[in-house]
Amino acid sequence: MHEVFERFAENPLLRPADVRPSAEGLRVECLLNPGAFRYAGKTWLLLRVAERPEQRPGRVSTPILDPDSPGGMRILEVSRDDPGLTASGDRGFVYRGTTYLTTLSHLRLASSQDGVRFQVEESPALVGSGELEAFGVEDCRVVEIAGTYYLTYSAVSFRGVGVGLASTRDWRRFARHGMILPPHNKDCAIFPEKVGGSYWCLHRPSGVGLGGNYIWVARSQDLVHWGDHRFLAATRPGKWDSERVGAGAAPIRTDRGWLEIYHGADHQGRYCLGALLLDLRDPSRVVARSEEPLFEPVAEYEKKGFVGSVVFTNGQVVDGDELTIYYGAADTVVCAARASVRAILETLR
Amino acid sequence: MHEVFERFAENPLLRPADVRPSAEGLRVECLLNPGAFRYAGKTWLLLRVAERPEQRPGRVSTPILDPDSPGGMRILEVSRDDPGLTASGDRGFVYRGTTYLTTLSHLRLASSQDGVRFQVEESPALVGSGELEAFGVEDCRVVEIAGTYYLTYSAVSFRGVGVGLASTRDWRRFARHGMILPPHNKDCAIFPEKVGGSYWCLHRPSGVGLGGNYIWVARSQDLVHWGDHRFLAATRPGKWDSERVGAGAAPIRTDRGWLEIYHGADHQGRYCLGALLLDLRDPSRVVARSEEPLFEPVAEYEKKGFVGSVVFTNGQVVDGDELTIYYGAADTVVCAARASVRAILETLR
Question: Residue B179 belongs to a domain with what CATH number?
């Protein structure tokens, strides 16, 4: 492993206990995978807050968004002895043939003067809306283009997991632009500027039978409608990114190409970070790729948690040569690490 | 079952033996799932022609498109004793961890004065092109909008199965518009006109973990870039369409709504046809849906073949109240059946 990233001494920066639940009866179980951006002179995180009711002994319960229920939410609670409960894991369970998540996620803002000590807002910025977000919204990337912030997030429901788009100029009023990439898709990062006359994004569809959990690119004229989907990067058998790969935050323009920090998971579900370098004029062309991870789950708070051995980033800020990634550790807490962009590029020779 | 469809007495209309292989050393194994359209006073089919080499005893072999090989194609041949061959079925096999199809498909034109006796062209109209079509092109829908024919087909490769778009005005020169829907996606049928200022399509992404093989709708301004993906119709447990559903050809405008003939398969892989009726002004709203299949594989040529018990349509022509569907039977031969549109609508009361 190349030692290019330095963890913040203050890690974890935020824990579930730092966040007020969004509704009575819910408990914040995980705080993870924040989008990050600069706005009004401050550094902001758009945290993923994963909640569920206090789990009673011998039972599993989860919240589901439902406009017909009081408060727009209902709780599904099942006895662990119920024969309808046919599978149960950390992230989901299957009840009467339907798959549910164990937690419901919304997006919450937190702001900071120094990028280290964050003040978390009291209530959600964005919650799931409509049938396609009944299981919540997750892992939001934020990119600013000409004063408008574009948010791409996982829209999760009974119908599958796709990519939703929202936008805002003031972080108070949000416009919703619907689902821009249909199931099964996640990890969508929009480039910060047009390339060759088009907007571009990285995204992560999944193959069924053929293909796999690979990174693709697509083009758009309006950020809402996407086409010209092309394959970009596959998983690599036997390596740290053998099972799934997915983009992090928006690619960073450098003189050598578009630098993208991405995550890779192996068959044990261990998540690490690496880098892709894409051609400046044709981002569908990979110039270089990390052979070894640039960042691995080795700290105690990365190894142990709701889902252990996970570092996952979808938010970053760049200051000249300094890249700060904000990341979810063990699907439980939010941390940060910094690296020199130049040093990362050096690993990609 | 409602007996609204009447099979052509001449079925099967076309068999593999009616088609000349596209290259020396290949054999036409299956002739199936044609798109259909009217052009220059005739009825045309855009057949899916599935080829492979003559299978030698104890071996499995399949063609793969490869621009670096002579003739743009190479043959992969594996002994059935090879320990690298870890799975093998009618439609595909797994060799050294990679999934391959057993056949390579291209699209071939056939034309007819009467819609019954078809003349098949000597060479392919459309073959797979580029990395994303290395395993061929399949199951093409054809829709005519303002004199241009738009072709949506399955683009199949190592990278997954997505939807490709091509267009033509004269059926000799084709423009390629790339992949419009990323993996895993199939069964894309574009509406024949704009609705509420947008183009619309039906498509069939697949969920992973959450969701399933459901029909969705999307909107576009240019037919190349798509957004506003919405869920339309799910599989139904215990019914004939319990495992997968997918659109047939372009929806038919009727005074009661958009009529769509779709396929449904059950857990045994038995494919039947049914109908969806969609709101005229908002095609994302299902007005009615067949409880029972309208068309089932019961004829001998539908029950026995390369893959038995399959009727699958993605091509049709409409003459006033008369709908003629062209369909693949048992993944082996091409057949036709006709029905009164009015009679189909009656089943959807």
Answer: 2.115.10.20
